[in-house]
Amino acid sequence: MDDFLDKLPQMDLMRSEKMTLVQLIIPVESAHRCVTYLGELGLLQFRDLNADKSPFQRTFATQVKRCGEMTRKLRFFKDQLDKAGLRCLPRHELEPDIELGDLERQLADHEHEVLEMNSNSEKLRQTYNELLEFKIVLQKASGFLASSNAHAIGDETELHEGTYSNNGFIESSSLLEQEMRHEPLNQSGLRFISGIINKDKLLKFERMLFRATRGNMLFNQTPSDEGIMDPSTSEMVEKTVFVVFFSGEQARTKILKICEAFGANCYPVPEDTTKQRQLTREVLSRLSDLEATLDAGTRHRNNALNAVGYSLTKWMTTVRREKAVYDTLNMLNFDVTKKCLVGEGWCPTFAKTQIHEVLQRATFDSNSQVGVIFHVMQAVESPPTYFRTNKLTNAFQEIIDAYGVARYQEANPAVYSVVTYPFLFAVMFGDWGHGLCLLLGALYLLARERKLSTQKLGSFMEMLFGGRYVIFLMALFSIYCGLIYNEFFSVPFHIFGGSAYKCRDTTCSDAYTVGLIKYRDPYPFGVDPSWRGSRTELPYLNSLKMKMSILLGIAQMNLGLILSFFNARFFGSSLDIRYQFIPQMIFLNSLFGYLSLLIIIKWCTGSQADLYHVMIYMFLSPTEELGENELFWGQRPLQILLLLMAFIAVPWMLFPKPFALRKIHMERFQGRTYGVLGTSEVDLDVEPDSARGHQEEEFNFSEIFVHQLIHSIEFVLGSVSNTASYLRLWALSLAHSELSTVFYEKVLLLAWGYENILIRLIGVVVFAFATAFILLMMETLSAFLHALRLHWVEFMGKFFHGDGYKFKPFSFALISDDDE
């Protein structure tokens, strides 16, 4: 048996790549080039030999800081380009590589130039805004002043006659109104302040003026017809022109302070109309000159930014790579002579030759007189886990890694999930009409794969695009299961021939009460379409899907146990095979494997035996005769034997392994209380289910026994609960089918029964929305999550530990914009 298993070909994804711990001794003069070439290769994961040092204490901290400063400048240029509405358009001709020092000087010069232009532009914009505000105030405030003067002269007599006497006291309008109306502004001491303020501050500003002057002021306002650009945010701001009439120097001081506090800009407006016109002409002339100056400055700034934009993408890539190189160099140590850097790291065994060739090329290109020393080290810690995946298998590997990264060289569930995951999804989602809709979406993502892979997508779209092959396989399996269920949007079709059943008479009046009769061979593929709408449809489909769910669940759990056997055999742990795999297989299949056998026999023979009764009384009365529930000869003694084997398997799982470990320990360490285990039988690096961790620990019998007790109880109870958990396949499949039937019959057919075209159209729209959002989105997500749980818990829980760590090589291809 062992020879046969050894001769089986290895699967690429079954176990992670063999890893090797290597040491590099690199001369200082070629260190930068060596690390750069290794980053281009992307097959070496460096270990941090300076973990006890802070980032500022490391050798190349100054270079990392310089790269960080250049990254800040590049982000500044990118923001300026975005703000100006310009795009980074790289030149088509090849640009020569630039040294880091030259790039640093160029970036400093460009930044100084852009900052100076921004400063000048901001000052010019500020001056332009002030002149624009002054022009608006002149135009709006002149109207208030003209109307006030005319009103004061024209209505003087009428207002004077409007006063009247009361008990010797003269009552009239307010003092401010009297002064405004009886005398000109310059004769009565009535003064005014004009200015402009943000529209959102106007109400609070007016209230504050009213309270500060105790109502002795007249406030006029009008919105400005033009928006004014804020130079700091480049956004248009709505403002309002105001004119405040008051009397007295004290009121003037208060009003000016309030204007300053609210950010209102005050501008002097002469009362003389001639002076107003002359001042307006001067302001318009200066505005025209400033507009031309601003336009010229903007063109000059855009030309400077375009010059930067041509090389910005290349510069950002260069700086990111240089920073990554120096970050990696900071993980290396100097040797005692301070002439070489010493580094350690993990690499796949197959990549040792490539790494050696790259290091030789780096030594030659750097003109170093001393070559790089590259040799293999003995590893103490567990190596990282590395699987070589492609576009199809990568998505399934990510689903498995979301639960936990496989332990080094542990059996990889992703190999089987490529088929089992979309299939279990399809069992719950089986409808070939809905499957076709999913297939169209998946084909769209696959057709635009090259274009979408280069775009920055949103989080939801990125998730869909990453799982495009998962969706594609789920759609194919959904079509397959839908053909088995014979459901197209819940409607059955005679795709593979005629039905095996017919009505008892020509009227078919009793088809849904008495039932149909069989008159020919069974329907060749899937469920016979005549079951749809019959009185036994629901009991038949319930029985079919429930039994099918149990069969699929037991098959997948047995696959998990078989993988645990291959894990134990690979790691050389015969204890796990003898005292875990064998009793677990006996217990699971003595009970639920036997149930699966009864289901298959009942299907093949057409027996009317009650399987519930058989399984219940197998425990309650194992010696009683089965009677009409007997499916085959010798069933009762077989049940007694299986029951005894299941009871024996429980202590078999619990007691032998802890005592066997204790015996090996006592023999090795001659009865000492504690010691370190080192053989393959008891070493935890090769003992997947042992109670100890990966690091060497003291042997503790009580801890191992308690762990084994918990593991045994968990498996016994989990065998029942996990089998029941697979019934979700039946439940979700039935729910999906019934929901689809409700939408078809109660929405589409009901609306189609009316002659009104509007009602029919509404019915089609409601049916389409219900299908798209409930059946194709919510039901897809529900089936996806349930299939995920069945794999993570019921399947992987039988053999998968998931306590490894990913292989993360130093690679320029893996550096993203977020790593800056």
Automatic annotation (TrEMBL):
Compartments reported by the entry: Membrane
Transmembrane domains' residue ranges: 423-446, 467-485, 548-566, 586-603, 638-655, 757-778
Bilayer topology: Multi-pass membrane protein
InterPro entries: V-ATPase_116kDa_su, V-type_ATPase_116kDa_su_euka
Principal localisation: membrane
Keywords: Coiled coil, Hydrogen ion transport, Ion transport, Membrane, Transmembrane, Transmembrane helix, Transport
BP term (GO), one: proton transmembrane transport
Positions in coiled-coil regions: 100-127
Gene Ontology terms: cellular component: membrane
Pfam families xrefs: V_ATPase_I (PF01496)
The family this protein is said to belong to: Belongs to the V-ATPase 116 kDa subunit family.
Role summary: Essential component of the vacuolar proton pump (V-ATPase), a multimeric enzyme that catalyzes the translocation of protons across the membranes. Required for assembly and activity of the V-ATPase.
Protein name: V-type proton ATPase subunit a
Species in which this protein is naturally found: Eruca vesicaria subsp. sativa (Garden rocket)
